[in-house]
Write a structure and sequence with these properties.
This protein is an alpha/beta fold and 281 residues long. 42% of the residues lie in helices and 17% in strands. It contains 10 helices and 11 strands.
Length: 281
């Protein structure tokens, strides 16, 4: 078993991001990421703080717009419209989840696709389906980069994705299909999950269920990517029963320190790419 060290890989990517920022600065382009946080969800607050801190380290400007939990949908859309029209803003990230009563899809549709650094606008999702990966959702993009960095073969390989969410499962499936993987997508309505996971040469778990994936659900020498971040008894654990599965896998990501750092690295990489395109117009 070998650990896939997301922290180490992301550190290399962050070096490339920082170099990209320097080149843009030399052209008087100063990448700025605007984050929008609604309410006081502790995990969301922490994520936004982490993103802001990493932006500073990479030389990217960061501006957080913190709105109250009871903000109206129209007020949120008005803020997004102002950010769309602000030439100093290159990336817009709306932190999820949003409160009930706000139409998340309407919010995604409102973000300028050129500034949609989380790749969730209909335009960017449609582009991904066409094979255009210029602006891709950060976590799926990070997973693919991590696997490619480790030299994991994806073409023709049986990959099982345990998630069909718009954030992870759906864009990740498209990324894998773009690489000619044979993809099975499992979700909460899947009958006999283990029957599918045991076929996987690459197993990616992102269901949000602590220790969902047990040892008997993983084939020998599989590559296992754990996207889950679940708080259990004050400890962060993944969707994979790590201690039970680790000796069965050829490669496995830890939680924390696996996919998480890659997500933030991809966010900043997307922000620099957006600044490059917008600044060249």
């Amino acid at each position: 078993m070998k650990l896939i060290d997301g922290r180490r890989i992301s550190k290399e990517i962050m070096g490339e991001v920082k170099a990209g920022v320097g080149k843009l600065n030399a052209r008087d382009i100063h990448p700025l990421l605007a984050t929008v946080l609604v309410g006081e969800n502790p995990a969301s607050v922490l994520y936004v703080e982490m993103k802001s801190k990493t932006c500073v380290e990479a030389g990217i400007k960061s501006k957080n717009h913190h709105l109250p939990f009871d903000v109206s949908e129209e007020e949120l859309l008005d803020l997004i419209n102002r950010l769309n029209n602000n030439p100093a803003v290159h990336g817009i990230l709306v932190q999820l989840p949003l409160p009930e009563g706000i139409d998340v899809n309407r919010v995604f549709r409102a973000i300028n696709p050129g500034k949609d650094v989380d790749g969730l606008s209909p335009v960017n999702l449609g582009n991904l389906m066409l094979g255009d990966e210029s602006m891709v959702s950060c976590t799926p993009k990070g997973i693919i980069r991590m696997l490619e960095y480790e030299g994991v073969k994806l073409e023709g390989v049986e990959v099982v994705v345990v998630s069909h969410s718009i954030l992870i499962g759906k864009p990740l499936t498209l990324l894998l299909l773009n690489r000619n993987s044979t993809v099975t997508v499992c979700h909460v309505h899947t009958r006999d999950l283990a029957e599918h996971t045991r076929r996987a040469e690459v197993l990616i778990a992102a269901a949000g269920v602590p220790h969902l994936i047990k040892k008997d659900m993983v084939t020998e020498d599989a590559v296992v990517v754990d996207v889950g971040t679940n708080r259990v008894d004050g400890k962060l654990v993944g969707d994979v029963d790590f201690e039970a599965v680790k000796d069965r896998a050829s490669l496995i990501t830890p939680v924390p320190g696996g996919v998480g750092p890659m997500t933030i690295a991809m966010l900043l990489e997307n922000t620099v790419s957006a600044a490059e395109r917008l600044g060249s117009k």
